[in-house]
Specification:
single chain, alpha+beta, 4 strands, globular
Length: 189
């Protein structure tokens, strides 16, 4: 299981802290130390870490992700920093830039991806993100419950609904990702 945690650090601060002091230096909020599997609340054990690449748009960082273990169920929980999406190398900032450029400003896919990341601007990655978002559109619309329907292509409408009421697109992606997982056990991407 993966849980998203706000450690109060951005990408570079997280990478520097973990590379200097290790994952045990992270300050974990108490609610994330409790077992999500068992009915009886108990603390999870530290179980180690695994390597993960993080593309912040400027460069790709390799860092460690903390794993916790439930000794009763024999299951692990990975604590992802809030700027990462499960199973994605790109940070929320990169995905925010891509979706804004592609579906709000209407730029071509290659141009939107080049604006989002300098390290590996692949059109296939952008097409994959679009397909993921399109595939989860029914769940997203149920989650967002738009008050009025708009005409036009599905993805631009969906992105506009996702961004409604948030200060930045990155904040909207992170918040909706956490809420969708809590409510429907589905990740945004």
């Amino acid at each position: 299981m993966q849980r998203i945690v706000d450690f109060g650090l951005d990408v570079k601060e997280y990478v520097n802290l973990v590379s200097r002091l290790g994952v045990r230096a992270l300050v974990i909020p108490v609610q994330f130390m409790l077992c999500p599997f068992c009915r009886e609340p108990h603390r999870l054990w530290h179980h180690g870490s695994y390597s993960r690449f993080m593309d912040d748009g400027e460069q790709v960082h390799k860092s460690q992700i903390l794993c916790l273990f439930c000794p009763i169920e024999g299951k692990t929980v990975s604590l992802l920093p809030h700027f990462l999406m499960p199973r994605k190398q790109a940070t929320c900032k990169v995905m925010e830039t891509y979706f804004t450029k592609r579906h709000i400003e209407g730029l071509p896919q290659a141009v939107a991806m080049a604006a989002a990341t300098k390290t590996n601007p692949s059109r296939q990655k952008g097409a994959y993100w679009d397909r993921c978002l399109e595939k989860k559109a029914p769940v997203l619309m149920a989650h967002l419950r738009p008050r009025r329907t708009e005409e036009g292509a599905l993805l631009p409408r969906l992105v506009r609904h996702l961004l409604h009421g948030f200060a930045s697109p990155g904040e909207a992606l992170c918040v909706h990702n956490q809420r969708l997982h809590a409510r429907f056990s589905v990740w945004l991407f």
